[in-house]
Amino acid sequence: MRSQLGRARGLGASKSGVEHWWVERVTAIALVPLTIWFIVSVLTLLHSDQPEVRQWAGRPVNTVLLLATVIMTFHHMQLGLQVVIDDYVKKSHLAVTLLNKGAALLLGLFSIVAILKMAF
């Protein structure tokens, strides 16, 4: 026979909510320097033509930083929207959650392919 506390221990939102909270914070912190780098890069490329931008994007450091920015941005977006969905969407919660994850994945993949086509 187990007590009520013994049965309840390990249950609740704290099992999955803490990880979600941490990942959301880590992506937000990672996006601060990536966003600053991206804005500075765009401003320096403001009056460049397409071959110059392709050459810039073809540099390995810039390619990796662009990919990291896109991945972190769409993952952070998906995590943030998931919190809103969990808090406010009551009807068709599963469908909206799948739409959120699918849209973030699809838009992220389109962005990654565009960066790789530009870089190579």
Q: How would a crystallographer describe the biggest sheet?
A: none
Q: Extract low-pLDDT stretches.
A: none
Number of strands: 0
| Strand and helix order | HHHHH
- SS element count, helices: 5
What is the assigned CATH homologous superfamily? Fumarate reductase/succinate dehydrogenase, transmembrane subunit
Q: Radius of gyration, rounded?
A: 20 Å
- The rounded distance between the terminal residues' Cα atoms is 65 Å
The total domain count is: 1
- Principal-axes shape call: elongated
Structure description:
The chain is mainly alpha-helical and 120 residues long. It has a single domain, classed as 3 helical TM bundles of succinate and fumarate reductases (Up-down Bundle). The protein contains five helices and no strands. Helix 2 packs across helix 4 and helix 4 packs antiparallel against helix 5. The radius of gyration is 20 Å and the shape is elongated. The mean pLDDT is 92.
In brief:
The chain is mostly helical and 120 residues long.
Question: How is the topology of this model organized?
Answer:
Elements: H1 4-8, H2 14-44, H3 50-58, H4 60-88, H5 93-119
Task: For the structure shown, list the relevant keywords.
120 residues, mainly alpha, 3 helical TM bundles of succinate and fumarate reductases, 0% strand, elongated, transmembrane, transmembrane helix, Succ_DH_anchor, Succinate dehydrogenase hydrophobic membrane anchor subunit, SuccDH_FuR_B_TM-su
